[in-house]
Amino acid sequence: MANLQSKTAFIIKTLTVIFLLCRINLVFGEIRYSIPEELEYGTFVGNIAEDLGLNVRQLSTRKCRLVSADGRQHLEVNLENGILFVYERMDREQLCAQIPTCILSFQIIVENPLEMYRGEVEVIDINDNSPSFPESALLLQIAENIAPGSRFPLESALDPDVGTNAVTTYKLSPNEHFRLNVQTREDNTKLAELLLEKPLDREQQSTFELVLAAFDAGSPPRSGTMQININLLDINDNAPAFEQEVYRASLVENAPPSTFVIKINAFDPDQGTNAELKYSFINLVSRRVRELFSLDQDTGEVRVEKLLDFEEANSYELDVQAVDNGSPAIAGHSKVLIKLIDMNDNAPKIKLTSLSGKVPEDAEPGTVVALIDVTDRDSGANGRIHCQIPKEFPFKLLSSLNDHYTLITSGLLDRETTSEYNIPILAWDSGSPPLSSNQTIQISISDVNDNAPRFARRTYTEYVMENNVPGASIFTVTASDPDLDQNSYISYSFKQVLQESPVSTYLNINSVNGTIYALRSFDYEKVKNFQLQVQARDAGVPPLSSSVTLNVIILDQNDNAPVIVSPSAQSGSAAEVIVPQSAGQGYLVTKIIATDADSGQNARLSYQIVRSTDPTFFTVASNSGEIRTTRNVLEQDGSTHNLVILVKDNGQPRLSTTATILLSIQANVSAKISDTDNLISTPNYSSNLNLYLIAAFGSTSLIFLVIIGLLIVLKCHQERDDVPDGWSPVCCCSRKNAKETFSRASMPTNPLNYSGTGQSIPFPETYHYTVCLSPESSKSDFLFLKPCNPHMPQGQC
User: Hey, what CATH topology would domain 349-446 get?
Assistant: First the structure.
């Protein structure tokens, strides 16, 4: 029999599940299922992917999850097939107690994009509990003279189930005096009373033994029994009667203890002790109600004992009785219904359902940051909630569902400006006065590489003295990056350094701190300045960079001594210069030409005679280097004179060189007449001898001059390609002083550096033909060009 009932129950339960699963209701983003209680783990509830139109393959990647209101995980979703199944065995009596409809609410949240659905599962009661009485036996003392129609309340049976599975009916064992009267209370519970139908006669029957059975309407039905023992008493035959069958009262919640609620009153037509009444709660009243309310046994006043909470229960039903002092005592019964008035005593509660701890600073407006639930246990206007955040934050709240909010970004974020936000969320209800609560959400902004390194200036100029120590640092460039961590790690390098560039051979840079080192000494005479670009690059992904221009200017040091260019010494240590015996005061003997590879003051030269055979005979110009006679040549003057000329620059320290010049005084016919260009003051006269000589050699010189000119032009054409850029080929001798020669063979092969030019000027290659100027040309428009004899002293043709 038990196996048959079990199988029948299983079949009915299965059919109930199938029927209820077919009642899925999708309305405006809500889904509802119904399942019976006590289902095993893994039992199918529904396919949310199919019912909500979600892609099963994206459930895992979109982080589909369930969020229940009470925090317990009764249900779970299989992310592989979208099936909602039972995760934890549910006992409806534990979840919802006596609430007729047991609803488990939850939210279905999927991300990317964010979608929220409201789900409800109704847990349907099954008949898994039998009715039971508080006591297995009840003893009633009834006076024998009690009138027919008298009622005797019985202990109600308790059944944790609800609906049809709860107690629906009572049955009394057959007897001729009593019958059972069943009343339905406002909460649909059943109250059984014994109703006396026939007068009692204690002498005929003094006791009754009845059986009270309670039945539910489950499938299969369950039942429980209680033994009723009745003893008849032979006195006090009037029961107390209340003025009202039901007393009603209203009371605000949170009323302080001892608050008066209502006063009940009963009367008894008996006299004496049989009419003395005591008021009390009947045994049906729960312990919780007895803790909340008190009933004065003498006055019948009902008062508050503890604070009442509308959110716990909004009404109370008290079963009271008035018992007389007769023997046996008789009781009269009544009810007190107390309705609670809701007060705004609950502030809204803010709960973070989901929170992104860090938000990238490049997040687009509308990015979801947090999901927030705001609830208020009050009802009506006291439970209507408003929620907001301050407007100065780049975030805003959107109401997604009832009492559910989404915090999203409303503007652009910049970690370098604000790296963290503490956003206060304020929620308040519509009560009077309104109650509010707040909660602060901390949101950190994560860094992205959106800032390139920055230099303090666009260009830098650094002055470096030549002959610097190799390996020493000459300059440090520094860039800053307001980004964070690796996005702010900066490395330095030269930008687009070519192998032939001076940067690659002279400089190196520390990639970590930007210090620039000289790999070798600078030479001002080779490189006076150069420009390079330094690049700063961060370690972000992708990396960002910027560059700065560095102008390096080499400063000159006095590291080059003057060099004598002219006159040059031939196969000896002294240069030979011939002075005609006819030379007068101020005669230009020769000019010292010297160069200095340095620049500025380091290349400004001065000349002086440091040793002379006759200190009173010659002088040198300190700036131009011209050597002139200070007087006329005298007969007693020696034929040779030695001059040592000191040439020194103006650097620190000053460098110098010397030139030794051997002056030979010779008698020469052509030298008797001084050149006006070589004398400071010379008489202007004409010599007949010169006229004869000019006439005698005129024709010969003219022919020879034409031949020499043709040879020079031919030579210029041959060497034009060998002349450096920027130089014009010199094909003939310029006019010089009478005894001064200009020999390309005597010029130095080193380039000449002139101060302030910033460049080196190389001399062309040596000519193999020397042109001399005849001293007689001072009185003539003709030039006598003669080949020089290499064995003759310099200056003689």
Answer: Immunoglobulin-like (2.60.40)
